[in-house]
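We examine the record.
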Amino acid sequence: MEDRLPRKLAAILYADIAGYSRLTGQDEDATHRTLGLLLDRLSQGIEEHNGQVMHYAGDAVLAKFDSVVDAVSSAVTVQRELFNQDHGVSDERRVQFRIGVNLGDVIEDRGDIYGDGVNVAARLESLAEPGGICISDAVRTAVGNKLGLSYEFLGEREVKNIAEPVRAYKVILEKQKSTGNSQDALSLEIHNKPSIAVLPFTNMSGDPEQEYFSDGITEDVITGLSKNPDLFVISRNSTFTYKGKSVRMADVGKELGARYVLEGSVRKAGRRVRVTAQLIDSASDRHLWVERYDRDLDDIFTVQDEVVGSIVSALGAVDGVLEKSARIRSTKSSVKDLTAYDYYLQGRHYFYQHGDTGFKEAEALYEKAIELDPDFARAYSALAWLHFLRFKLFRTQSFENIRQKTLDLALHSVRLDPNDYRAHWALGGLYVHEGKHAQSLAEFEKALHINPNDANLLAFSTQVLLYCGRTEEALERCERAIALNPNCPDWYFWMLGNSYFHLGQYQEALDAFGRMTAPQHARRLVAATYAHLDRLEEARAEAEEFMKVVPNFSIKEWAKTEPYTDPNELARYVDGLRKAGLPE
């Protein structure tokens, strides 16, 4: 067998001039002179950050670094310097680099580097904007929050000559580490996207026992709309606070921050179902779309898809933002037996009641759904999620007791339906508790790519970001989750306060905890926050209250379950707990 060529893990930077051929055509001599100066500055920036230029290819540069942080720092420094230097120059005449950074194995041979790691860096460069930087998922994970930058997930991109889609991030150069900026960006997003709230469909069946069915149809419509990245869809948690109430659309829109409101009703009788729906502009109280569907119960998934598609078309007509296109993802399930779907909806009804009794009822109903239809993906993911939350929220079972069961159910759901975002969500939660941070992040990103508007998913995913040191990103996700779910539960503010805590913004953390209605389980972190502000009397009072809820708490045992990648972040937390007087 031939000896393998030497390989090593390296950070790879690939830079190219945007629109070089066009610029050369406009003024060949001036462009070439500018290119020489830019290549010299880029090479200098690479060397200043401990990198090595491997070769030049016309207007392109390939470099390697031993440190991912150095590679990204080099790219950021150069791009910012060139932007300031060319400030005021028109875009048509500005000579700008596009830069891609990847982390991967490279082959070293004859003073150069080769391999897929290099190829991916080049493809990332092509995804970057002129004057911008695009990095891979591996780089994003390795950098964490070390550089104080913000990042935008660009999704999984199919790129030339690379077998698997590349998970790419844009480095945000325009803003620094700042809460105000993230709020401004969020406000801009809400302003630029049609925002919609779906009120609970009214049960017109004359049977209160059918409430679960009308609620289930409502939630499936919300999920169908949420999968559209061009919409801003208010969470079920917030819209269901209006259930059974007579409301003015203008008030709903104002209270939830939604321009459009969908309301409707469901009547189920035997094997027939009637669904009515109407879309309203909350600002003007104008009806944009109204439809009634009288169908056989077997057509219920088709009706849901038609409702979602019609709403997207109506919003596209009035907003001019949406395209009726592949953006409409089917709400259809793999379910083959409608009785199984009915059991699933009943189980979901009990699941939302939480508590041990509700979870037991939900578990039995999900298992009945699987028994009737062994290929029903959503029933498996719902059961996986239930087992994980039983550990996470109530600790009625140990992690070891639920681990294999949750893993098997979630993986089976993904095999049946790769677009079941709740299955990826459950896997993300599971993997981080196993210390598999990269896998956890990947699963959460898959879930968010499928459903970018699920507020609970966004808020829940902040925990793994905090464990990985990506604190600024965690804060931004919390803020977005709260905007999507204005009537959010307490744990959102726990995650918001936790993000501020790890940013060292302790007063802001206390303000977030103060928005909780029942802060009993947050008192541990509140105590640590007061301690870091040297308000030790208040810290000890919070610690005492916490010990009434969790009398057997031990800092040492708790710390074993907290999988921080940066020991300094765990040490920050532990130091606060000790100062507050919690037991070792």
Summary: Confidence is low (pLDDT under 50) at residues 87-91, 175-182, 320-331. Residues 7-174 form a domain with the Alpha-Beta Plaits fold (CATH 3.30.70.1230).
